[in-house]
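User: Before I run my own analysis I want an independent prediction to cross-check against. Here's the chain; please return only the structure tokens and, at the end, one sentence I can use as a sanity check.
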Amino acid sequence: MLQLSAILLLPSLQFVLTRPSLTPPTTPWALEARQIPPLPTYSEIFSCPAASWPPASIGSLLTPQAPDAELQDILSEVDPERIEAIITKLVSFGTRHTLSNQTDPTRGIGAARNWIEEQMRSFAAVSNGQMEVTVPSYIQGVADRVLFPVRISDVVATLKGSVDPGRYYVVSGHYDTRCSDPNDFVSDAPGADDDASGVAISMELARIMATRRPAATIVFAAVAGEEQNLYGSRLLAQTYQNASVNVQGMFTNDIVGSSTADDGTKDPYTIRLFGQGIPTTESAARSRQRAQIGGENDSPARELARFVVGVAENNYTQMNIPIIYRLDRFLRGGDHRPFLEAGFAACRFTEPNEDFAHQHQDVRVENGTQFGDLIEFVDFEYIARVGRVNAAALWSLANAPMSPQNVTVNTTLLSNDSQFTWLANNDTLTAGYEALWRPTDAPLWTHAVPLGNVNTATINLSKDNVLFGIRAVGKDGYASPATFPFPG
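Assistant: Structure tokens:
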């Protein structure tokens, strides 16, 4: 469903600003046409003129970043048939429960781990030394859902950046599975949707990008222990945190295999993106200040989510990307959480309508209903589109400059202007900076103000009336996620 980004009312002109029309691209890999309903009129949505205030025209309307030729090539290479082959192979291991057999060559999580590693190493073999594959692991002791000490192993393919290799972006899926009883490590638990679908995206993007040269480093991971307590993701996040790795963004793809709900409703062109609000790692004083200045919707995770919409909701992915303003589904968790707890910006992709008959269920037929996370309920074309969303986001992040750091807004004097300062990037990617702004009730940035290659700027628009962010812009047009300014 097409969503309005903002409604703007100028003194002499009333118009509607929307996200770009998602008419299907005329490319050989665009398989289905999409029907976009007519947009409602202004009066049908808002009756209160204050909804579009302030009537300012500072800067220009923000234009979504279109994929360049190389990114278009990447998106065109995402192959539903390869995704199907990956999921089929993962399902063939019977169960991938974290406590299942680790030495059997054909059944259990050990066989699955070895196969994923083998595939990742085959991608690295053609990378001319730019991709490294590792299998970090540790022994997890007895704990809730861990009946005996067990090895937790991640499979991690790291594609080194060519310009800024110390800046990392991570994408992951979890390769472990479960059935009705979270401690049942013997019964079949095929996990086609949860989460072979997410692992397939990590692996397919690793294959496609292995021969390419992003400016920053991209990590493609398959992690274990998610169903037991996010153990594999926590290992990876804590490893990066302990090594002071500059992780600027992380995505987990978890349950991204089907757009069909339990009542048969289909929404094949939507992927939910969950973005946490106030960071749990902020100090109490910082969180109070964030709430006082109205920045609770501008956490690093939400700026990352806005960035994804700007670069990946377009004709080339064919996907709508609604941002869900919470950490995860109600009282549930995912592999982005340990990254958030480590202080990194992280978001979760999940299909729009989960069918719980095919999630965390024993494989069985009951009263004529098939239960179990079986491959027959997975949509490979849909996963490919989700993969393109991830590819667009990761490639755009890795080739943009880093987001500005230490962004502040001057609050030492009363003024209807807004004065900003930030720490200039010390890199070869940054060509300049832009100030983004939006009305306080708008979910996405609406305007951009070019600032030049500077580290301070004054804008004739009051910080009291709108929300601001500062972003870096590269020489090739790639732009970073915005950074929300705090008083300074």
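Sanity check: The longest helix spans residues 380-399.
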